[in-house]
Amino acid sequence: MLSIQKLSCSYGQAPVLHDISIEVAAGKVSVILGPNGAGKSTLLKAIMGHMPVVSCQRISVAGGRSLDRLPMHAVARMGVAYVPEGRGILNSLTVLENLQLGLSLLRIRSPKEGAEAALDKVLDSFPMLKDRTHVAAGLLSGGQQQMLAIARALISNPSVLLLDEPSLGLAPLIRLDIARLLREIADSKNVAVLLAEQDITLAQRCADQAYVLRRGRIVAEMAGGELIDRERLRQLYLGSAPAAS
Ligand SMILES: Nc1ncnc2c1ncn2[C@@H]1O[C@H](COP(=O)(O)OP(=O)(O)O)[C@@H](O)[C@H]1O
Ligand SMILES: [Mg+2]
Protein backbone atom coordinates (compact mmCIF):
# COMPACT_ATOMS: atom_id res chain seq x y z
CA MET A 1 0.00 0.00 0.00
CA LEU A 2 2.68 2.51 1.07
CA SER A 3 6.00 2.05 -0.63
CA ILE A 4 9.09 4.19 -0.06
CA GLN A 5 12.17 3.57 -2.13
CA LYS A 6 15.57 5.07 -1.42
CA LEU A 7 14.52 8.25 0.30
CA SER A 8 17.25 10.63 1.44
CA CYS A 9 16.80 14.07 2.94
CA SER A 10 18.68 16.69 4.88
CA TYR A 11 18.22 19.80 6.99
CA GLY A 12 20.18 22.33 4.99
CA GLN A 13 23.62 20.83 4.51
CA ALA A 14 23.16 18.22 7.24
CA PRO A 15 22.04 14.83 5.87
CA VAL A 16 19.44 13.20 8.13
CA LEU A 17 18.02 10.21 6.23
CA HIS A 18 20.01 7.92 3.96
CA ASP A 19 18.46 5.62 1.37
CA ILE A 20 15.38 4.64 3.35
CA SER A 21 13.22 1.91 1.81
CA ILE A 22 10.04 0.78 3.56
CA GLU A 23 6.89 -1.10 2.56
CA VAL A 24 3.63 -1.17 4.49
CA ALA A 25 0.87 -3.41 3.19
CA ALA A 26 -2.85 -2.72 3.58
CA GLY A 27 -4.09 -4.12 6.88
CA LYS A 28 -0.57 -4.26 8.35
CA VAL A 29 1.21 -2.27 11.01
CA SER A 30 4.85 -1.36 10.46
CA VAL A 31 6.93 0.40 13.08
CA ILE A 32 10.02 2.54 12.77
CA LEU A 33 11.89 2.03 16.00
CA GLY A 34 14.84 4.09 17.03
CA PRO A 35 16.33 6.29 19.73
CA ASN A 36 15.88 10.04 19.98
CA GLY A 37 17.37 11.85 17.02
CA ALA A 38 17.41 8.74 14.77
CA GLY A 39 15.28 10.49 12.16
CA LYS A 40 11.83 8.99 12.80
CA SER A 41 9.92 12.29 12.76
CA THR A 42 11.90 13.47 9.77
CA LEU A 43 10.90 10.34 7.85
CA LEU A 44 7.19 10.88 8.49
CA LYS A 45 7.52 14.57 7.62
CA ALA A 46 9.29 13.67 4.39
CA ILE A 47 6.43 11.34 3.42
CA MET A 48 3.96 14.15 4.17
CA GLY A 49 5.83 16.64 2.01
CA HIS A 50 7.01 18.67 5.01
CA MET A 51 10.72 18.17 4.38
CA PRO A 52 12.91 19.00 1.42
CA VAL A 53 13.77 15.63 -0.11
CA VAL A 54 17.29 15.35 -1.50
CA SER A 55 16.65 12.22 -3.52
CA CYS A 56 14.02 9.54 -3.74
CA GLN A 57 13.24 6.85 -6.26
CA ARG A 58 9.62 6.73 -5.30
CA ILE A 59 7.04 7.19 -2.55
CA SER A 60 3.70 5.79 -3.57
CA VAL A 61 0.32 4.73 -2.24
CA ALA A 62 -1.30 1.70 -3.86
CA GLY A 63 1.12 1.87 -6.76
CA GLY A 64 -0.11 5.33 -7.78
CA ARG A 65 1.96 8.30 -8.84
CA SER A 66 5.02 9.20 -6.79
CA LEU A 67 4.28 11.43 -3.82
CA ASP A 68 7.72 12.82 -3.29
CA ARG A 69 7.92 16.57 -3.73
CA LEU A 70 4.14 16.90 -3.49
CA PRO A 71 2.87 19.40 -0.89
CA MET A 72 1.19 18.10 2.26
CA HIS A 73 -2.41 18.74 1.18
CA ALA A 74 -1.81 16.76 -2.01
CA VAL A 75 -0.33 13.84 -0.06
CA ALA A 76 -3.33 13.93 2.31
CA ARG A 77 -5.67 13.91 -0.66
CA MET A 78 -4.01 10.73 -1.89
CA GLY A 79 -5.19 9.03 1.31
CA VAL A 80 -2.31 9.50 3.73
CA ALA A 81 -3.39 10.70 7.20
CA TYR A 82 -0.84 11.96 9.70
CA VAL A 83 -0.99 12.19 13.48
CA PRO A 84 1.99 14.40 14.34
CA GLU A 85 4.18 14.26 17.42
CA GLY A 86 2.27 16.07 20.18
CA ARG A 87 -1.04 15.07 18.48
CA GLY A 88 -2.00 18.40 16.95
CA ILE A 89 -5.20 18.68 18.96
CA LEU A 90 -6.61 22.19 19.49
CA ASN A 91 -7.17 22.42 23.24
CA SER A 92 -9.65 25.27 23.23
CA LEU A 93 -11.97 23.55 20.75
CA THR A 94 -14.40 20.83 21.77
CA VAL A 95 -13.98 17.18 20.86
CA LEU A 96 -16.62 17.59 18.15
CA GLU A 97 -14.98 20.71 16.70
CA ASN A 98 -11.64 18.94 16.58
CA LEU A 99 -13.26 16.06 14.72
CA GLN A 100 -14.95 18.47 12.33
CA LEU A 101 -11.49 19.66 11.28
CA GLY A 102 -11.08 16.25 9.67
CA LEU A 103 -14.15 16.76 7.50
CA SER A 104 -12.61 19.17 5.00
CA LEU A 105 -10.40 16.39 3.72
CA LEU A 106 -13.31 13.95 3.62
CA ARG A 107 -15.18 16.35 1.33
CA ILE A 108 -12.32 16.19 -1.13
CA ARG A 109 -11.66 12.47 -0.85
CA SER A 110 -15.21 11.11 -0.57
CA PRO A 111 -17.55 13.95 -1.58
CA LYS A 112 -20.57 11.63 -1.51
CA GLU A 113 -20.12 10.68 2.13
CA GLY A 114 -22.11 13.09 4.31
CA ALA A 115 -20.40 14.89 7.17
CA GLU A 116 -22.97 13.72 9.73
CA ALA A 117 -22.63 10.10 8.67
CA ALA A 118 -18.83 10.31 8.81
CA LEU A 119 -18.92 11.84 12.30
CA ASP A 120 -21.42 9.24 13.52
CA LYS A 121 -19.29 6.45 12.12
CA VAL A 122 -16.12 7.63 13.83
CA LEU A 123 -17.92 8.34 17.13
CA ASP A 124 -19.39 4.82 17.05
CA SER A 125 -15.86 3.47 16.90
CA PHE A 126 -14.75 5.70 19.80
CA PRO A 127 -17.46 5.53 22.50
CA MET A 128 -15.20 7.43 24.90
CA LEU A 129 -15.33 10.44 22.55
CA LYS A 130 -19.04 10.05 21.92
CA ASP A 131 -19.67 10.68 25.61
CA ARG A 132 -17.56 13.85 25.53
CA THR A 133 -18.34 15.60 22.24
CA HIS A 134 -18.87 18.99 23.93
CA VAL A 135 -15.92 18.83 26.28
CA ALA A 136 -12.92 21.06 25.49
CA ALA A 137 -10.16 18.85 24.11
CA GLY A 138 -7.70 20.42 26.55
CA LEU A 139 -9.64 18.83 29.44
CA LEU A 140 -9.16 15.29 28.12
CA SER A 141 -6.43 13.04 29.48
CA GLY A 142 -3.35 12.46 27.35
CA GLY A 143 -4.63 9.06 26.25
CA GLN A 144 -8.03 10.48 25.30
CA GLN A 145 -6.36 13.28 23.33
CA GLN A 146 -4.34 10.69 21.43
CA MET A 147 -7.54 8.78 20.64
CA LEU A 148 -9.10 12.05 19.43
CA ALA A 149 -6.13 12.72 17.16
CA ILE A 150 -6.43 9.22 15.70
CA ALA A 151 -10.21 9.52 15.31
CA ARG A 152 -9.79 12.83 13.48
CA ALA A 153 -7.24 11.28 11.15
CA LEU A 154 -9.64 8.42 10.35
CA ILE A 155 -12.55 10.66 9.32
CA SER A 156 -11.19 11.12 5.81
CA ASN A 157 -11.12 7.31 5.20
CA PRO A 158 -7.35 7.18 4.72
CA SER A 159 -5.65 4.16 3.22
CA VAL A 160 -2.42 4.97 5.08
CA LEU A 161 -2.12 6.23 8.66
CA LEU A 162 1.18 7.70 9.90
CA LEU A 163 1.67 8.26 13.63
CA ASP A 164 4.59 9.99 15.31
CA GLU A 165 5.27 8.57 18.79
CA PRO A 166 1.68 8.19 19.97
CA SER A 167 2.96 6.74 23.27
CA LEU A 168 4.75 9.94 24.31
CA GLY A 169 3.74 11.02 27.81
CA LEU A 170 1.24 8.18 28.29
CA ALA A 171 1.15 5.64 31.12
CA PRO A 172 2.09 2.04 30.19
CA LEU A 173 -1.48 0.72 30.35
CA ILE A 174 -2.78 3.51 28.11
CA ARG A 175 0.01 2.74 25.65
CA LEU A 176 -1.34 -0.78 25.39
CA ASP A 177 -4.79 0.65 24.59
CA ILE A 178 -3.17 2.61 21.76
CA ALA A 179 -1.46 -0.56 20.50
CA ARG A 180 -4.80 -2.41 20.53
CA LEU A 181 -6.49 0.44 18.68
CA LEU A 182 -3.84 0.55 15.95
CA ARG A 183 -4.08 -3.20 15.49
CA GLU A 184 -7.84 -2.92 15.16
CA ILE A 185 -7.59 -0.07 12.65
CA ALA A 186 -5.31 -2.18 10.47
CA ASP A 187 -7.41 -5.35 10.85
CA SER A 188 -10.91 -3.95 10.53
CA LYS A 189 -10.39 -0.99 8.20
CA ASN A 190 -7.60 -2.50 6.12
CA VAL A 191 -5.49 0.63 6.68
CA ALA A 192 -1.69 0.51 6.26
CA VAL A 193 -0.34 1.86 9.55
CA LEU A 194 3.18 3.28 9.85
CA LEU A 195 4.17 4.12 13.36
CA ALA A 196 7.32 5.91 14.60
CA GLU A 197 8.05 4.79 18.16
CA GLN A 198 10.64 4.34 20.88
CA ASP A 199 8.39 2.11 22.97
CA ILE A 200 9.32 -1.46 22.11
CA THR A 201 6.48 -2.96 24.14
CA LEU A 202 3.85 -0.96 22.26
CA ALA A 203 5.50 -1.91 18.96
CA GLN A 204 5.62 -5.57 19.90
CA ARG A 205 1.90 -5.55 20.72
CA CYS A 206 0.78 -4.28 17.35
CA ALA A 207 3.49 -4.47 14.69
CA ASP A 208 3.66 -6.96 11.84
CA GLN A 209 6.97 -5.54 10.70
CA ALA A 210 9.65 -3.41 12.34
CA TYR A 211 12.49 -1.32 10.98
CA VAL A 212 15.22 -0.13 13.31
CA LEU A 213 16.44 3.34 12.43
CA ARG A 214 19.75 4.64 13.75
CA ARG A 215 21.38 7.86 12.70
CA GLY A 216 19.18 8.11 9.65
CA ARG A 217 19.81 4.59 8.37
CA ILE A 218 17.75 1.44 8.59
CA VAL A 219 20.07 -0.96 10.40
CA ALA A 220 17.67 -3.89 10.78
CA GLU A 221 14.34 -5.13 9.57
CA MET A 222 12.40 -7.82 11.38
CA ALA A 223 8.97 -9.36 11.89
CA GLY A 224 6.96 -7.94 14.81
CA GLY A 225 7.34 -11.24 16.67
CA GLU A 226 11.12 -10.79 16.73
CA LEU A 227 10.81 -7.64 18.86
CA ILE A 228 10.95 -9.98 21.82
CA ASP A 229 14.78 -10.04 21.60
CA ARG A 230 15.39 -6.93 23.72
CA GLU A 231 19.12 -7.44 23.98
CA ARG A 232 19.56 -7.41 20.21
CA LEU A 233 17.38 -4.32 19.95
CA ARG A 234 19.36 -2.58 22.66
CA GLN A 235 22.55 -3.31 20.76
CA LEU A 236 21.02 -2.10 17.50
CA TYR A 237 19.90 1.12 19.19
CA LEU A 238 23.36 1.67 20.62
CA GLY A 239 25.19 0.64 17.48
CA SER A 240 27.04 -2.30 19.05
CA ALA A 241 25.25 -5.00 17.02
CA PRO A 242 26.12 -5.73 13.41
CA ALA A 243 23.59 -4.12 11.09
CA ALA A 244 21.71 -6.88 9.27
CA SER A 245 18.20 -7.48 8.13
N1 LIG B 1 14.47 21.58 12.22
C1 LIG B 1 15.64 20.96 12.27
N2 LIG B 1 16.79 21.54 11.82
C2 LIG B 1 17.97 20.89 11.84
N3 LIG B 1 18.14 19.64 12.30
C3 LIG B 1 17.06 18.99 12.76
C4 LIG B 1 15.75 19.61 12.77
N4 LIG B 1 14.87 18.72 13.27
C5 LIG B 1 15.57 17.61 13.56
N5 LIG B 1 16.88 17.77 13.25
C6 LIG B 1 17.93 16.75 13.41
O1 LIG B 1 17.62 15.65 12.57
C7 LIG B 1 17.92 14.43 13.24
C8 LIG B 1 16.69 13.56 13.28
O2 LIG B 1 15.68 14.19 14.08
P1 LIG B 1 14.22 13.58 14.25
O3 LIG B 1 13.71 13.19 12.94
O4 LIG B 1 13.45 14.57 15.04
O5 LIG B 1 14.52 12.27 15.12
P2 LIG B 1 13.53 11.38 16.01
O6 LIG B 1 12.14 11.73 15.64
O7 LIG B 1 13.93 9.98 15.70
O8 LIG B 1 13.84 11.73 17.44
C9 LIG B 1 18.47 14.80 14.61
O9 LIG B 1 19.88 14.77 14.53
C10 LIG B 1 17.97 16.20 14.82
O10 LIG B 1 18.89 16.92 15.60
MG1 LIG C 1 10.56 12.38 16.75
Structural class: alpha/beta
CATH architecture classification of the domain at 1-79 and 192-245: 3-Layer(aba) Sandwich
The first-level CATH class of the domain at 1-79 and 192-245 is given as Alpha Beta
Uncertain stretches of 5 or more adjacent residues:
none
Which whole number gives the mean pLDDT?
91
In CATH, the homologous superfamily of the domain at 1-79 and 192-245 goes by the name P-loop containing nucleotide triphosphate hydrolases
Hetero ligands: adenosine-5'-diphosphate, magnesium ion
Within the CATH hierarchy, at the fold level, what is the topology of the domain at 1-79 and 192-245? Rossmann fold
End-to-end CA span: 21 Å
Percentage of β-strand residues: 15-25%
The total of beta strands comes to 10
Short description:
The chain has ten helices and ten strands. By secondary structure, it is an alpha/beta fold.
Can you lay out the helices and strands and say which pair or pack?
Elements: E1 2-11, E2 14-24, E3 29-33, H1 40-47, E4 53-55, E5 58-61, H2 72-77, E6 80-83, H3 95-100, H4 103-109, H5 115-125, H6 127-130, H7 142-154, E7 160-164, H8 172-189, E8 192-197, H9 200-206, E9 209-214, E10 217-223, H10 230-238
Parallel strand pairs: 3-8, 3-9, 6-7, 7-8
Antiparallel strand pairs: 1-2, 1-4, 1-5, 9-10
The chain binds adenosine-5'-diphosphate and magnesium ion.
